[in-house]
Amino acid sequence: MKGALLVAGTTSDAGKSVVTAGICRWLARQGVRVAPFKAQNMSLNSFVTGDGAEIGRAQAVQAAACGLEPSADMNPILLKPGSDRRSQVVVRGRPMADVDAMEYGALKDRLRTVAVEALDRLRSRYDVVVCEGAGSPAEINLRRGDIANMGLAQAARLPVIVVGDIDRGGVFASMYGTLALLDAADQSLVAGFVVNKFRGARELLEPGLDTLRELTGREVYGVLPWLDGLWMDVEDSLALDNRPPVAAPGGRTLRVAVVRLPRISNFTDVDALAGEPGVVVRFVTSAAELDDADLVVLPGSRATVSDLAWLRSSGLAEAVRDRAARGRPVLGICGGYQMLARTIRDDVESGAGLVEGLGLLPASVEFAAGKTLARPVGEAYGCQVSAYEIHHGTVTVDPRPAARPGGDRGTPGRNGHHEAEPFLDGCRVGAVWGTTWHGALENDGFRRAFLADVAAVAGRDFTPSPDTSFSALREARLDALGDLVGTYMDTAALVRLIESGAPGGLRLLPPGA
């Protein structure tokens, strides 16, 4: 088998990422050498490859679905919004510039070449490349400079399937409307549709599917049912709106509150906690929601200084400081760790200069123009830990004793102050931990030891499961996606499409014709 496919969607969060991962896993289990690709990704959830390139985390998971190590070619262009108007542009894994929308438009021709060349390299190395679109292909205001959807499909002559989310309603209108808004050349590459997140009796859906086929002349390649517990690494924090509090069954409950910062990044760091039996993870935006939490997590941020200001204005900063003073556990990761420091000097990301941090850890932060991208390995709680780093802010821990923010840990110094203890690459004082390392909680032994320590500090009767393997859980989820594709999609038609491309002569009839 040789070929390629573009998986587009009627909207963001229609399910393009998981459908792409499912097709990749199904093909890999058929013995096909398959790789994922996304030309342009706008996401604050990213990952660092083995050679130090930054790519979207969804593509890293799709690579795992293929049984591959991720590479920069799988996501050659990554946009990381720092505000509503400006984004950092990461090209082939390295930051190139911070631009606004108009400035980005001037880069499009160059970036289209980068994307097509990356796809060509993947197609030369693998039998099949499954490409994921971005947003919707019917964003007609952006079509002229498009490099992620139909612009890519035209440049590489890719057949396209369009995924629609039936759970949010209006799926038939959105699929027909997506096709209708495309010009004839783009329409000719759209081969059909996939209905995603279906709940109910399939026979009730059939009349609508038949009409969609008649109006569009296109295939419906499958109806994928809703499947609980299939949370995967996602790109868009908007997906958190549809994510309920998650706790695996069994064990006594440990409650984790993750602060949903306006520019939250790499919130997938806590997915490993949600996979631990008895741990409830929820995302919060108010001080009152911290009251019953056993652990509060300040996650990563693409805009540390701005999100720290929001933390203060929302009352969450004072609530976090109060928790720490009473010895109730707080964990800061990357940007969240920076917020826990005494001072932040940022002349790079925000241009705010010297800013006062929360002062819960004896550290100072200095933002550098160069970005740290690394795959560190270390040790904590007697366990080896592998992780990844993505940050401009460099944290320096002050060796002087710090005022103890609660708890009994730390070595007493002069005037009752406590010295910071090492914690991964960061530090700990009392019930407050901080690290720049993403992905550390995916290390099973470290995660269990950390949670046991948190439970002890919080006074909770909780023992982590000795059997939970996060990597096995992720593999099981990828297998479940592959099973969905194998069971509910017309895989024979899918294979023909990949090998032969979009059939010609497809028509689109107006409704009522």
UniProtKB/TrEMBL annotation:
Location of the region described as Disordered in the Swiss-Prot/TrEMBL record: 396-421
SUPFAM superfamilies per the UniProt record, alphabetical: Class I glutamine amidotransferase-like, P-loop containing nucleoside triphosphate hydrolases
Sorted UniProt keywords: Cobalamin biosynthesis, Glutamine amidotransferase
Pfam families on file: CbiA, GATase_3
The CobB/CobQ-like glutamine amidotransferase domain, residue ranges: 255-445
Active-site residues from the entry: C334 (nucleophile), H438
Domain of life: Bacteria
Keyword Cell membrane: no
Domain CobQ/CobB/MinD/ParA nucleotide binding: 6-230
Key word Iron present: no
InterPro entries: Class_I_gatase-like, CobQ/CobB/MinD/ParA_Nub-bd_dom, CobQ_GATase1, CobQ_N, CobQ_synth, GATase_3, P-loop_NTPase
UniProt pathway: Cofactor biosynthesis; adenosylcobalamin biosynthesis
Function: Catalyzes amidations at positions B, D, E, and G on adenosylcobyrinic A,C-diamide. NH(2) groups are provided by glutamine, and one molecule of ATP is hydrogenolyzed for each amidation.
NCBIfam families per UniProt: cobQ, PRK00784.1
Family: Belongs to the CobB/CobQ family. CobQ subfamily.
Record's protein name: Cobyric acid synthase
Record organism: Microtetraspora glauca
Gene: cobQ
